C-alpha cells in the first residue's frame, strides 16, 4: 500500500491532460491547495502523451489550443505537433508548481459515494483515499476502441503485429512491411502520409471517406515569436482573431447546414488537385454533407493515397484469415501489420463503470440510455462529482481549451458555493434541471449538420443521439457556465444521526437553499 492509502483531500482530480492540469491550476488560483491529481500513467499529458504516432499534430491553431492563463509565445508552427504540445503541458505543470499534487501511477479503479460522511471513497492501483469533491478529467479520447474482428488473434499467432494509433509500438519497424491501416479519421490521415514512403505496401481500409481540407500550416517566424515575447498583447490579439473567425463559422454547423455547400466545393477541388484517377477520386468523395463528420486537415493525405504502393479499399475490415486481411466487400490483402485508427470509447467511457453514486448504481448504469449532465458538468445522483469535457461539450470547429476553461469557471463557483453553504455539504443536480438542460441541447441539435448531414459519426451514441457536441458558440457556453445556479441543485448535509439501512441522507429544504443562495 502507498503512503497515501488513508489520505483525505478537499478535491481529487482524475487525469492529467489539459482538463486535469487546468483544474489543478484553477484550484491553486482559487486558494485551494488540499487536492491531488490522480494519473494512471507515469507522466502528465493525457491524449498528447498517449498519441505519439508518426505525424501526430493538432488541427487547431497553436495560439488557440493553449490556456489563456498560460500563453506560449514560442509555438514553432501555426499547427503544432504532438512533441511541442506535450512539452507545453510539462511546462504548465512546472510553472504552476503542480508536481507536489501529482500521484502518478495511480489508476482509479473505483469511486463510491459515502452518503453518511458526504465524501467520495476512491480506490486506486496504489491504495485508497477519500475526497469531498471529485473532478473527473479523464477525457473522451483516452480509451482506444479496437473492433472485434474475427481472426485477429490468429493473425497475432501467425506473427502479425496489431496495435492502435494511440498505443503506437515504436519498437516495431514498418520499413518494407505490408501494412493495413484501418480507419480514415483524424489519426489515420496523419499516419498514412507519414509511413507511406517507408512501407512496402499500404492498404487503407476505408469504411467511410472523410472530407479533407488543406492545412494552412507554416513555421512561425523568429520575428513573430520575438514580438509575442516582448509585446504579449500581440499574442492575445492573435488568439482573439483565431477565436472570432471560428465563432463566426458556428452558425453554418448548427443552424444553416446548407451554407456548408461552398466549403464542400472547396473540399472536392482539394481531392481533384491530388487525385487524378477518376475511380480513386470517386472512392474518396463522401456522400454526406461536409461537417457531419469531423472535417480533417491535411496537405499530404491525398498525394500519399495516389502513390503506387498504396491501395484504398472502400470497405471496412471484416475478418482476418491467417495473414490475409479481408474487407467487407471481399477484397483481400496480405499484411504483416494492422494499425487501427478506429477511435475511442467516447459515448461509453470506461470511467463511468467505476463511479458509484448515491443510489448505489454506477454512472454507466445511470447513462445506459445515453449520457446526460447538467451544463456538461454534473450528473443527477452523483453528489460533488464533476466532469471536465462532459456530455455535449465537444466542438466541431474550434478549440476544446475554450470549453475546458468555461468548465473550470463552473468548477470554481461550485466550490465557492460549497464554502458559502458551510459545514460538510454536498450539491447534487436536480433530475428536472438535468432533463431541462438536455432537452434544450437536443432540441437545438436537430437543426445541426451533425444530425441532418446524412452520416453516422462517432458523435452519436448507440441510440443515434448526439451526446458529444455543443450546438452553439463557445461564447454561449461560457455564459451558461459562468456561475452555479443553486436552484438547479439539491443541497445535502450530513444527517444528525446515521440513517437506517436503505435510508437516503436528508436533503436541505428549499428554504435552506434560498437562505444559502442569499
Automatic annotation (TrEMBL):
Gene Ontology molecular function terms on file:
monooxygenase activity
Q: Where is this region: Disordered?
A: 496-518
Q: Keywords of this protein's UniProt record, alphabetized?
A: FAD, Flavoprotein, Monooxygenase, Oxidoreductase
Translocase in keyword set: no
Q: If you read the UniProt record, what top EC class would you report for this enzyme, in one word?
A: oxidoreductase
Q: Which InterPro entries match?
A: FAD-bind_Monooxygenase_sf, FAD/NAD-bd_sf, Flavin_mOase-like
State if Cytoplasm is listed as a keyword: no
Q: What EC number(s) has UniProt assigned to this enzyme?
A: 1.14.13.-
Q: Which family does it belong to?
A: Belongs to the FAD-binding monooxygenase family.
Protein name listed in UniProt: Flavin-containing monooxygenase
Q: Which organism is it from?
A: Streptomyces coeruleoprunus
Amino acid at each position: 500500500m502507498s503512503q497515501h492509502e488513508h489520505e483525505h483531500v478537499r478535491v481529487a482530480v482524475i487525469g492529467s491532460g489539459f482538463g486535469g492540469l487546468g483544474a489543478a491550476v484553477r484550484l491553486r488560483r482559487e486558494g485551494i491547495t488540499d487536492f491531488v491529481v490522480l494519473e494512471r500513467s507515469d507522466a502528465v499529458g493525457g491524449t498528447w502523451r498517449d498519441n505519439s504516432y508518426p505525424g501526430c499534430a493538432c488541427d487547431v491553431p497553436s495560439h488557440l489550443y493553449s490556456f489563456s492563463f498560460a500563453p506560449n509565445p514560442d509555438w514553432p508552427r501555426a499547427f503544432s505537433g504532438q512533441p511541442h504540445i506535450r512539452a507545453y503541458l510539462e511546462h504548465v505543470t512546472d510553472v504552476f508548481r503542480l508536481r507536489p499534487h501529482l500521484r502518478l501511477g495511480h489508476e482509479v479503479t473505483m469511486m463510491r459515494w459515502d452518503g453518511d460522511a458526504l465524501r467520495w471513497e476512491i480506490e486506486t492501483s496504489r491504495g485508497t483515499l477519500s475526497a469531498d469533491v471529485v473532478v473527473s478529467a479523464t477525457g473522451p479520447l483516452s480509451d482506444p476502441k479496437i473492433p472485434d474482428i474475427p481472426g485477429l488473434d490468429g493473425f497475432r499467432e501467425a506473427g502479425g503485429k496489431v496495435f492502435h494509433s494511440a498505443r503506437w509500438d515504436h519498437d516495431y519497424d514498418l520499413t518494407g512491411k505490408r501494412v493495413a491501416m484501418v480507419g480514415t479519421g483524424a489519426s489515420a490521415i496523419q499516419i498514412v502520409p507519414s509511413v507511406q514512403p517507408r512501407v512496402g505496401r499500404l492498404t487503407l481500409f476505408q469504411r467511410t471517406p472523410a472530407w479533407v481540407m488543406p492545412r494552412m500550416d507554416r513555421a512561425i517566424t523568429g520575428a513573430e515569436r520575438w514580438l509575442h515575447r516582448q509585446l504579449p498583447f500581440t499574442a492575445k490579439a492573435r488568439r482573439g482573431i483565431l477565436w472570432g473567425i471560428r465563432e463566426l463559422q458556428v452558425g453554418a454547423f448548427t443552424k444553416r447546414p446548407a451554407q456548408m455547400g461552398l466549403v464542400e466545393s472547396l473540399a472536392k477541388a482539394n481531392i481533384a488537385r491530388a487525385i487524378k484517377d477518376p475511380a480513386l477520386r470517386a472512392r474518396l468523395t463522401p456522400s454526406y454533407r461536409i461537417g457531419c463528420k469531423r472535417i480533417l486537415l491535411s496537405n499530404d493525405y491525398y498525394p500519399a493515397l495516389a502513390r503506387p504502393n498504396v491501395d484504398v479499399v472502400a470497405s471496412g475490415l471484416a475478418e482476418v484469415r491467417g495473414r490475409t486481411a479481408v474487407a467487407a466487400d471481399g477484397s483481400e490483402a496480405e499484411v504483416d501489420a494492422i494499425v487501427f485508427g478506429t477511435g475511442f470509447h467516447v459515448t461509453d467511457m470506461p470511467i463511468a463503470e467505476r463511479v458509484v453514486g448515491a443510489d448505489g448504481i454506477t454512472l454507466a448504469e445511470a447513462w445506459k440510455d445515453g449520457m446526460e449532465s447538467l451544463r456538461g458538468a454534473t450528473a443527477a445522483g452523483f453528489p460533488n462529482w464533476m466532469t471536465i469535457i462532459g456530455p455535449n461539450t465537444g466542438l466541431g470547429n474550434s478549440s476544446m481549451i475554450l470549453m475546458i476553461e468555461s468548465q473550470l469557471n463552473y468548477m470554481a463557483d461550485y466550490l465557492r458555493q460549497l464554502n458559502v453553504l458551510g459545514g460538510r455539504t454536498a450539491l447534487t443536480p436536480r433530475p428536472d434541471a438535468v432533463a431541462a438542460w438536455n432537452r434544450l441541447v437536443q432540441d437545438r441539435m436537430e437543426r445541426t449538420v451533425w444530425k441532418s448531414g446524412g452520416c453516422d459519426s462517432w458523435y452519436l451514441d448507440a441510440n443515434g443521439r448526439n451526446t458529444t457536441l455543443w450546438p452553439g458558440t463557445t461564447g454561449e457556453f461560457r455564459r451558461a457556465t459562468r456561475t452555479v445556479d443553486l436552484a438547479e441543485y439539491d443541497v445535502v448535509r450530513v444527517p444528525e444521526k446515521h440513517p437506517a439501512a436503505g435510508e437516503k441522507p436528508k436533503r436541505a429544504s428549499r428554504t435552506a437553499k434560498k437562505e444559502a443562495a442569499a
